[in-house]
Design a protein that fits this description.
single chain, 258 residues, alpha/beta, two-stranded antiparallel ribbon, 7 helices, 24% strand
Length: 258
Amino acid sequence: MSRPIVGIIGNSYLINDEYPAHAGGTMNSEAVSEVSGAIPMVIPSDPRLVSVEELLSVCDGFLLTGGRPNVHPEEYGHPETEAHGAFDRARDAITLPLVRACVEHGQPFLAICRGFQELNVAMGGTLHPEIRDLPGKMNHRMPPDGTLEEKFELRHDVTLVEGGVFHRIFGATRVRTNTLHGQGIEKAGRRIVIEGRADDDTPEAIRVDAAPGFALGVQWHPEWNAANDPVSRPLFEAFGDAVRDWASGSRTARLKSA
């Protein structure tokens, strides 16, 4: 049986400041292929090129990746400010309805960093543009200097709800993660359950309540060293299991209707 397909949300880039491209980090594809056991397919996140309906029919699951541009605050009813940074409205137009469709139908997805924030906004939540400016919050941003290994090093702990989904996946109620984000959840969206928090109370792990399928998000970057990290590996393995279950059920349904 062929491997299931995971659509990896791509980001828009300008190569050499002039050549437009859609791309995804190699570590995302490696995590999906080597740990989840699925075929990674980078999606050009632009509604001029693809539709949510087409993506749902082609892919068995989705990885909502991180990215420098932020969700536009208009999507959650806030005015745009300089602190909100750069945006990618085309990606917003794909990922937000895609999340809602996956939640409704039970199609599995794993949301990472910006994807974590997209999940919250898609479900009606809001974001704070710069959480390090809030009283009592640490700086969660990526270090500006250093090697890639230094930027993705594990920097803080996340405490998980005992008996929750993440506790069951990791086999622990406290895990160590990297941190490379500036924005964070201000108000949790409808049905968003916060199951993990950093020591400064910043939400780090969420799920959709009563979702019929795998619908999880983490604020850190588990794709880094996913094959070896004791937190990343079980998360991508659980995601892969969910994607295979979906693909198997989808194939069975197609055979019955044939």
